[in-house]
Design goal:
6-stranded mixed β-sheet; 5-stranded mixed β-sheet; 11 strands
Length: about 350
Amino acid sequence: MRTQRSFTWLSVGLMFAVTIFLSLAADSAMAKTVHLRLAHSEAVANIRHDVTIFFAKRADELSKGEVKIEIFPAGVLGSHQSCQEQVSMGTLDFYITTAGLVSVFDPNRAPDLLELPYLFDNYSQAYAFMDLPFVAKFYEPLLANGIRYLATWDNGFRQMTNNVRPINTPADMKGLKIRVVQSEMSINIINALGASAVPMSYSELYTALSQGVVDGQENPFMNIYASKFYEVQKYLSVTRHQYSTLPLIISEKTWKKLDDNQRQAIQKAALEAAVYFRKQVGASEDSQRKAMEAAGMKINDVSDLTPFRTAVEPVYAWAKGKWGADKVNEILTAVEKIRKEYPAGTDKLYFGPESK
């Protein structure tokens, strides 16, 4: 009888111990899972949103379920400036920005240099350049303000739209009020081309165009299409005046809370998403163009970009005066090397390191 009672108590004890062990294991697994938030400015119809879903999925898979990312599109968490501040403070984990916009967190505004006008002839040149370790150094000063750079995604080449006339030469820009992002580089480029640059929040742009507050704006095809600017703009001119970078940033406060596995998963997912993004952008432009033309927008290709390149030469002079000729020439030297590897008109493509 005593033996049976002892066996019963032993069984109860073992069951209790197993229950405690399983509970602690579950708690430990839950403790390792991190829930992060990513915001961006574009509509859910934009390729950018699709890429954020891909990024979140890959981060989850690569971390074996430890990294969960919730996405907040279309500027629902605030303007570019507000979301960047939130990342800096650690109240938002990820944001997709531009080199020009995020440069305000560097006293020298060095990332702005990555968006000099007419740096690249094609997408492969832009992608190969943005993947250089040399480029990542431009974002290092942001760490002092709580922002860490992960990868450069793709925002495409910027084009002009307006409601007054087609743009064929810089002379056609004269007198136009063109909305730009709040970046010194962008402002100087548009002013150099002869228009009046009007810095404005992206969330205000559709209304501003519809009400005639500005005559036009400049953005890549995918943004013009997804945000339906063709509904409130008559003309789109393919000027390709600036390759628009799209750096993915993470709060340094968030980064420090992550373990090595989570960090590696996020970094790898960010780089994979860059390639995924790049393969979609150029491939989608023809269909986006046709859809906008079908909606009534008049689109013209600028046959000769030489006058535009000449018109923005003062921007290079300004950049050399601000950051030093050595810094600007360092960029131009790196770009020239890549131009030789991926010349205009070549069938050789670059989407990421694996395509070299």
